[in-house]
Amino acid sequence: MRRVNSAMAAVLLLAALILPGLNGQQPAEPEAAKKEEKEMPPLKVQCQAVGREFVKGQNVELRCVFLFKTDVNINFDDLKKISDKNFTLVGFSTTPPTPVPSQKDYSYSILTKVLRPDPELGYGKYPTRLSLGYQYHEVAWKEQDGKKVLQTKVMAKVENLPPIVFEKVSLFARVDGGEGFQDVVNIGEHILYTLHIFYEKNAVIVLNNMSLVELDKKYGVRDATQLDNPDLKPFVVINKDDLGKKRQIDRGYHAELVYEYRIALYEVSLVKMFEVPSINLYYAVRGVNKAIALSTPVTKIRTNSVLNQDSDFRPLKGILKSDPEKSRKLGFWPLRTAYALAALAGLITLIGFLLFLARYLKKIYRTGLRGSLAEVRKSFAIRFGGLRLVARLHTLRVLTMLEEEPNQENLKKFIKALRLYMAVLVRIDVKLALSLTVQEFGLRVDAEVLENAEYLLDEDITHDDVAILRSRFKELVSVKKAKKFRRR
Fold this sequence. Notes:
This protein is α+β, with helices and mostly antiparallel strands. It is 32% helix and 30% strand.
């Protein structure tokens, strides 16, 4: 599955929100630029939990991205302090300040913090609060002896960050494709698909190992996934009979149950996204005769096209050419027969054309001139839509709809329109353009806007995300000429 570094993504998002020029804005006028620079904060922080759920005895991790001016002095030691007695600090690291590309006045740093929750905490949500102090220089003109003097003052502030909430549960699960897992695979390629189940020992019972008849009779459950032999259609589980695919790891207060499935897909589609279905888990708290349901998210995968350069498929061998000497030995009559057949084929073609013309004239007589013109106008609209200017205007109209209503439906419309526009740029078939990956488009045209748009699929979309898409689309439009896309 396509992996995106969450820390770097957060840095770029913060840079786009704060800094001009990174989100596609036009360069401001000198006075406006000075005003904007003055209003830009010296420090911006974004924090998120790597995983919000945890079980007894399991550590939690949070990551913060700091975007700050080069003259800002941040006291990271303030973040080592734990004001909440529910957590204990066990790990703390920061990266050296790194300049933000194209913004020499700003740098960013990434902080990782590992906390150990109190094992005696009850089930529920627990917030952790962070604050840090920092110093920066404030430069301003001051009146002194009737003259304006530029003075620099060291300012000290404390940044109180929004609380990050962790939740203690008795069991949770996640799926992992492993290192190098891709969402575009070859036909029949083996894929490592791993299910991790974390649960508190002596507190819950995983019910999926029971028979379906017993589950239905005791708990009324009929859709539980058999973990030893799951039904992941259209994918085939290669190692369903392998007893080594299941591992149980003792981690102290909690245990980890791991199922490593090797799956493969044998269907082909240029446009269809195949889905690894959800795994339906059921568990029960000890002493409570009630099944609790939990489902893993769906994983989307596309099969590799046989037209790709790196495909394992090979083209057909060349057509065998006849030997001229042998052709002469066959005699003169086969050639005469071939000429006669060619003339007959031409005559049939001419008759077919005349019949088509007669039927078309009859259709005009039946539907009238206005109906015929309407069909011609529709055909012209289809051909006209293949022009670069028309495709770009259509994409901008859909992008405007996405700005007004940032939802998944408008996002999918924008991705489709964007793919069609990029197909016009690189001169490929529309159906093929809908099936190409971002990497394939990137061979001949800048596909960063397509990558950003598809990354937002099944995610919450904000107006800031749409602003980034517009800026990336402007960069794509600024390319005056794209090379013709060729497949080997």
